[in-house]
Amino acid sequence: MGSFLVRHRRLVMLLALLATLVMGVLGAGTVNALSLARFEAPGSESDRAGAELAERFGTGSVDLILLVTARDGTVDDADVEAEGRELTRRVAAFEGVAEAASYWTRGRPATLRSEDGRRALVVARIPGDATVVRSRILPALVPQVTKGGETISVRSGGGEEVFRQTVPRRGRTSCGPR
Q1: CA 88, CA 75: separation in Å to the nearest integer?
Q2: Which residues does 177 contact at the CB level (< 8 Å), separation at least 6?
Q3: Which of 40, 74, 111, 148 keeps 20 to 30 A from 49, CA to CA?
Q4: What is the pLDDT along the chain (178 residues), one digit of tens a residue?
Q5: Judging by beta carbons within 10 Å of its beta carbon (0-12, 13-18, 19+), is residue 127 exposed, middle or buried?
Q6: Half-sphere exposure of 69 (CA within 13 A, CB side)
């Protein structure tokens, strides 16, 4: 095979170039089939599963994750729990948030708490268009809930928040927090 490729190198290069052009033309239409930076293909199995979760169970994937760290002690301390529950309540009550849950509101599952007990999670689902979530809801919500308090500090993360902070908007040349 190697000698064939060497003898017909020009033909091989021409066919490779032609194949690249054909694949480019065929692949050009796939961008329109994906929603804004969520990598979801309408009608795909995962898209249908998400719709089923929303319709049958009123839930979906998590869009915002808040990491709550106890300044002293653990997240099981009464004062930390009180602030964690209040934070979860504020997130859940924010306009545009469909649901919010946390280590303290879900019966203290180990999956929402660090092994050392100093950190716990608050998770939120924010349905809707990615552009609206990233340009309107998160910029208004995140600064309000990451202020922390006397007993906790709060940092934000999650798929939508990461995209919001790292993907440049039109006219911006640098990435990172705004």
Answers
A1: 14
A2: 165
A3: 111
A4: 888 888 999 999 999 999 999 998 888 777 655 555 555 667 778 778 777 777 777 777 788 999 999 999 999 999 999 999 999 999 999 999 999 999 999 999 999 999 999 999 999 998 877 788 888 899 999 999 998 888 999 999 988 888 888 876 654 444 444 3
A5: middle
A6: 7
